[in-house]
Design a protein that fits this description.
282 residues, Rossmann fold, Alpha-Beta Plaits, six-stranded mixed β-sheet
């Protein structure tokens, strides 16, 4: 029977902004650890399985509280995931020995059996570069793909970062995608996207789509979870209306999410009229 007390707990320690999250999976891979605890998240094989990122917190104080799992609700969510996935080992990330020990204690995990320090896996120059990016651009790395974060981080800056990893000696390396985000408490502030940007994206897609003659009306509304899009189009006669609207809708969603890093809450596309090309246009 699975017991949390039997989990082997490892730690990866380094000052904030020195590149821990960037190297977390490398350290975990070398020790055959499948689970990582980083800034309030429980991550397994490039997938978030529990928790809420501390980097979404509005202040640095709230960030620390989330990272330490101080609330019973956050603890219970992690415990539920641990019982479900039954990990043999976990790697905890933190800025100090005291922090990783506190995380382990708050989650009811056994004592840490081995600690890796950022100096063991990164040069001084690499750490200074990471600090510079953190200070000047306010960017943080979370060890999961951008796709995993889209929903939770709608409206934040998300940049994929691809890193080559090796599966073992003699085997070809594979690409492990991380995600760079700018948290809410960054001094750079929040960013918004004009509704006109959505219109320009949609009109550009319509120009390239032979089934859509033009956009008649477009309304975009920014919500806390992301934009909602409503549009009315003029469809070209001869095309299957239902199929073409469905394809145009999905293409629009994909392009807006790729170009703006925002999670599209909903898209409604209505065919309001039909365009019949004359013989000269044919």
């Amino acid at each position: 029977m699975f017991s949390i007390n039997k989990i082997k707990v490892y730690a990866f320690v380094g000052p904030s902004g020195t590149g821990k999250s960037y190297r977390a999976q490398m350290v975990a891979g070398e020790k055959n650890i499948d689970f990582i605890i980083d800034d309030g998240l429980l991550v397994k094989d490039n997938q978030i399985v529990a928790g809420n990122s501390a980097k979404k917190a509005p202040t640095k104080i709230e960030t620390v509280k989330h990272a330490l799992f101080l609330s019973e609700e956050e603890k219970n969510e992690i415990h539920k995931a641990l019982k479900k996935y039954k990990p043999e080992s976990i790697l905890i990330l933190g800025t100090s020995d005291g922090m990783v020990e506190k995380i382990a204690k708050n989650l009811g995990l056994p004592n840490i059996i081995e600690t890796t320090y950022i100096q063991d896996v990164a040069t001084e120059q690499e750490m200074q570069t990471a600090k510079r990016i953190r200070v000047t651009e306010g960017k943080h790395v979370i060890p999961v793909p951008t796709f995993e974060l889209k929903k939770d981080f709608s409206g934040y800056l998300l940049d994929p970062l691809q890193i080559f990893k090796s599966k073992g000696k003699g085997q070809k390396p594979y690409i492990s995608e991380k995600s760079i985000i700018r948290p809410t408490f960054s001094y750079l502030g929040k960013f918004t996207i004009s509704d006109n940007v959505f219109r320009q994206i949609v009109e550009h897609l319509a120009e390239k789509n032979p089934a859509v003659h033009r956009i008649l009306r477009l309304r975009a509304e920014n919500t806390g979870a992301g934009p909602t899009i409503y549009m009315e189009v003029m469809i070209v006669y001869g095309y299957n209306v239902i199929d073409e609207l469905k394809k145009f809708k999905e293409k629009t969603r994909k392009e807006i999410e790729n170009l703006t890093a925002m999670n599209v809450v909903s898209i409604d596309v209505i065919a309001k009229s039909v365009y019949v090309p004359d013989e000269e246009e044919k």
